[in-house]
Amino acid sequence: MRIVSWNVNGLRSAHKKGFLDWLVAEKADVVGVQEVRARAEQLPEEVRAPKGWRTTHFVAAERPGYSGVGLFARKGLDDVETVLGVKEMDAEGRLQVARIGLLTVVNCYFPNGNGKERDNSRIPFKLAFYKRLFARLEKGLRDGERILVMGDFNTAHQEIDLARPKDNRETSGFRPEEREELDRWIRAGWVDTFRHFEKGSGHYSWWSQRFGVRERNVGWRLDYVLASPGAMPYVKRAAIHCHILGSDHCPVSVDLDPKVRR
After folding, report:
1. What stretches in the chain show pLDDT beneath 70?
2. Are 67 and 8 contacting, i.e. CB atoms less than 8 angstroms apart?
3. Domain chopping of the chain, boundaries
4. Is 130 an annotated catalytic residue?
5. CATH class for domain 2-261?
6. Which of 15, 29, 130, 152 is catalytic?
7. Residue (of 117, 105, 45, 113) closest to 71 by Cα position
8. Is 66 a catalytic residue?
9. What is the pTM of this model?
């Protein structure tokens, strides 16, 4: 069972760059996308309901052309929740908590800490969002439920997770308070699935769109799949698909024993 997460940086734009061809070739069971930037009715029919996918589900921000998340599932979803219970957070369309049998898949587009002037002014909102979601999932974590949290976390956790850590210590995404919040998740028991299998450097999932940056692999690892202790025994592999183009992010994935649903 393969589950994939991808910040598509605008799903209509990604569609023009071959998103559906990728969706067919990937052979995933569940795909979560972030930064959809469109309401469901604004998406082309072939994207909103692609052949071979039993269920699609989209959540849009109140602000047009901003944020948004979506799920594609081959065998359907038993239930999807989309709110954290905080008006300012829920208005941004950042969350889907989907149940697939005994597995819960959280598809999330975590806020960026940059304000309109790239001044780190949104970091408090970002951290509040992290904490609210952590609290929402804490009981399930403690009770041994099988949970995956995937998406664009907008944080590089450790120095190994970005190409130029010394140059970005004051940049949102690598500020100490952001990294500490991700540390808190790991200490609580969440497992960074990619780092469970791969300890080496040079693995990134986002690159600036400035000319030549991606070719030189000057990137950040901002996209994760975290597994609860209850889910981790079923995780067999984790990967970053850096060869996939169409966005400034690339997809990340986990392969699981299909028994995780039962």
Report:
1. none
2. no
3. 2-261
4. no
5. alpha beta
6. 152
7. 105
8. no
9. 0.98
